[in-house]
């Protein structure tokens, strides 16, 4: 009886004489299935990405004349004018402010702050508040700087006063306010006094009522990045701050333009005719819009339906309390601190704005 003959080819030998492993029987089918799934995934993504384009193109073809007529309307033209004016006026100051902030973050060591502050917390608070005019920074940069100061032994009250004053009273912000309100130096002085008064009052309030368990100190260093050159730190900080704040500027400009065009004058008069309604209304608007302090004066100047004191409240509250700052403070110091501190700061800023506006404006 003939024996069965194995017709399977012998395994090939490798360069070292050992037999090479034969691929599994289902490997080719598995590779084919993976390729098919990848092709389907790419196709589905392309369809999902192209669908909005096709829909917008179809709408443009069907309703092109109507869309063109709407864009040429007086309301849309007014919206474009207000939006463009705010962005064009605000971007140069925003860039200058982020340049200064990035330079301080990269080249100024944290020990500079500890050496110039008095050891007495009551005296350190106004000195730290005034230091915001000498060492400016944007809102986003002031939170990590304040955390770094606390970690290096600076009393929390002084660090918090600097956190509030640095983005509010620095020279770039004051010059931008002067440009946004030409021929009205009283507005610049009112912003400086109200902002400094708010920051100092909050520092002293923390000395009197603050508790250590409310404040969670940062666990990681917030100073210079290890093994990174100062030039690299400057570049990264500038890129982050400008792109981040620039996005809020565009959103704020669009919201202000929409507010000016869409809100009926009767509604504006309901708030603008009453000082007690206009102040908290624009204070809340500043929290929601979260416009960078280097550009918020141009947004405030466009809110012509409100009194100068109400617009002052918008500029004083914005650099100290807004949605992004509350988030940053919660992540750095804890949610319990952020809720208490932001609420107290908002009330103090509105009250100081009303007092200073009544005095100067």
Automatic annotation (TrEMBL):
Keywords, in A-Z order: Cell membrane, Membrane, Transmembrane, Transmembrane helix
Region feature (Disordered): 1-32
A GO CC term attached to the entry: plasma membrane
Membrane topology category: Multi-pass membrane protein
Localization per record: Cell membrane
Pfam families in the record: ArsP_1 (PF03773)
Family: Belongs to the UPF0718 family.
Superkingdom as given in the UniProt entry: Bacteria
Transmembrane segments: 46-71, 83-113, 157-181, 188-207, 242-263, 275-291, 297-317, 337-360
Source organism (scientific name): Streptomyces sparsogenes DSM 40356
UniProt protein name: Permease
């Amino acid at each position: 009886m003939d024996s069965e003959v194995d017709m399977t080819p012998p395994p090939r030998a490798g360069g070292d004489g050992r037999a090479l492993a034969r691929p599994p029987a289902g490997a080719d089918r598995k590779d084919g299935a993976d390729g098919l799934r990848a092709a389907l995934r790419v196709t589905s993504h392309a369809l999902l990405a192209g669908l909005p384009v096709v829909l917008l193109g179809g709408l443009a073809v069907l309703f092109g004349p109507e869309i063109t007529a709407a864009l040429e309307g007086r309301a849309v033209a007014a919206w474009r004018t207000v939006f463009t004016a705010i962005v064009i006026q605000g971007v140069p100051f925003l860039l200058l402010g982020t340049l200064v902030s990035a330079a301080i973050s990269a080249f100024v060591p944290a020990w500079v702050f500890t050496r110039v502050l008095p050891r007495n917390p009551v005296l350190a608070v106004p000195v730290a508040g005034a230091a915001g005019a000498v060492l400016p920074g944007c809102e986003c940069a002031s939170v990590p700087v304040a955390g770094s100061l606390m970690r290096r032994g600076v009393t929390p009250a002084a660090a918090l006063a600097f956190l509030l004053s640095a983005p509010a009273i620095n020279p770039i912000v004051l010059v931008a306010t002067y440009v946004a309100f030409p021929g009205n130096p009283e507005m610049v002085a009112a912003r400086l006094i109200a902002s400094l008064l708010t920051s100092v009052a909050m520092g002293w309030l923390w000395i009197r009522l603050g508790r250590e368990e409310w404040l969670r100190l940062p666990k990681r260093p917030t100073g210079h990045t290890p093994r990174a050159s100062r030039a690299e730190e400057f570049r990264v900080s500038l890129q982050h701050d400008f792109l981040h704040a620039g996005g809020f500027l565009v959103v704020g400009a669009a919201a202000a333009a929409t507010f000016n065009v869409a809100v009926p004058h009767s509604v504006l008069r309901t708030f603008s005719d009453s000082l007690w309604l206009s102040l908290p209304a624009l204070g809340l608007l500043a929290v929601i819009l979260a416009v960078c302090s280097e550009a918020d004066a141009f947004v405030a100047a466009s809110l012509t339906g409100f009194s100068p004191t109400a617009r002052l409240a918008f500029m004083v509250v914005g650099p100290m309390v807004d949605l992004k700052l509350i988030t940053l403070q919660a992540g750095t110091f804890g949610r319990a601190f952020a809720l208490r501190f932001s609420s107290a700061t908002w009330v103090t800023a509105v009250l100081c704005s009303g007092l200073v506006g009544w005095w100067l404006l």
